[in-house]
Each structure stands twice: as C-alpha cells, then as structure tokens.
Amino acid sequence: xxxxxxxxxxxxxxxxxxxxxxxxxxxxxxxxxxxxxxxxxxxxxxxxxxxxxxxxxxxxxxxxxxxxxxxxxxxxxxxxxxxxxxxxxxxxxxxxxxxxxxxxxxxxxxxxxxxxxxxxxxxxxxxxxxxxx
Length: 133
Description:
Blueprint: E1 5-6, E2 15-19, H1 23-35, E3 40-43, H2 46-56, E4 60-66, H3 67-75, E5 90-93, H4 98-104, E6 111-114, H5 120-130
Parallel strand pairs: 2-3, 2-4, 4-5, 5-6
Antiparallel strand pairs: 1-3
C-alpha cells in the first residue's frame, strides 16, 4: 500500500504534487498549500510520485520536491524524472543554493528553490514566480 493522499478537488490544472519521504513534512506542505488555495497530491517517494503523475498529469501545475528526493531523482534521471513531466515547474525545498539545484536538472527550465523549513509567504512567492495560474 502506498502512502499517497489526495487533497482538494480535480477541477482544472491546479494540483501541486508534493514529494517528500518524511510524513510530517509532506503533510505540513500539503496543509500549507491547501491554505494557499492549492489542492495537493502527496507522495512518499519517487515511485508514488510517478504513479500520481501518470494519473493526474494534465492537472498538475507544479511539483514540490524536497532536496534529498531531488538529488535521488537527479541520480535516476533516466527512469524517474522524465516520467514526472519535464515541462512541469519544479520547486525544490531544503539546504543549498538555487544554482546547485539547477545543476541537478539542467534541462528543466522552470525551477525555483526555497529554504527548509519554509514559510507560507516563501511557498506562495515561489508558486507565483514558478507557476502561471
């Protein structure tokens, strides 16, 4: 059984796919997104994220990915990342500089980085900069 939770409704291209292996962080991110008006899909790992992406690809506006999972995804670029939609904006949260994260995904044009932990305002601003609603 996968640890996948869907929040919000399925109207429009408005889901944010949250990928974080830490349950608390994943749920907090989903709650913050919900409070900001973004329904979320929560995935515990890359396999869950790929499953959700396949099912909701046309409705995912952005992917919110923790830095550790981003590094794993970059290492597995041949298998995981292309299935997570190269055209979907990516927001990575955690330690490190934006340039470091962009080097992990050189072919992905829409990448934004925020610190961990992040505030409502930081996540809201990253979504405004990264996603055209």
